[in-house]
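Sample entry (228 residues):
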Amino acid sequence: MSFMPYVPPEQLMKDRSEFAHKGIARGKSVVGLEFADGVLFIAENPSATLHKISEVYDRIAFAGVGKYSEFEDLRISGVRLADLRGYSYGREDVRARDLANAYSQALSTIFTQQMKPYEVEILVGEVASDGGHNEIYHVLFDGTVTDEHEFVAIGGHADEVATSIKAAYRPVWDLPTAVREAVKALSAAEGGEVVAAQLEAGVLDRTTEQRRKFRRLPEEEVAAILAD
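Predicted structure, serialized as tokens:
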């Protein structure tokens, strides 16, 4: 007769946490920061098709690091939830806070009940279109959710990137300055220059008159900003 050896719950949680941390540490960092006209997400990502940064809804964007298939699954679930809420109630009722809480509950359940936790960290950002405060939520692999302000970095070199940005950050930055400073921080953490072809960037721009505030920054625009 086979039996499962007893493992203390605290040791089990510690092992799962270390496993997830190792997977996330292998990923390149993502930066989310507020600037004068909205919220910028930028990451080192040489792939042109496997996006780390994506739109979720009109004023909401998503960024993830870690195992691509896992955070992409979370992104798709978030899009479906946002569409359902917007259809059932109203588009203005779709909030980043609600999505972050839903992600938190899902990741907490996976972490505690499944054999293998998700190896992911995610950011959910919302730009304020009425002069209010932007929102950036950081959700960990175990479901822990944090309300971030001004800037946040996730991924393998998150601490180094955040420290570099903190030394220079100003909330009145325009978009080009925000891009340059974020790339400078990513380059410093990686120990070498990160060029435009290796970058993925998206912005939630409150100044656009369109309902959808998210747009990707093409490589040519990023290259022009970095060359200026």
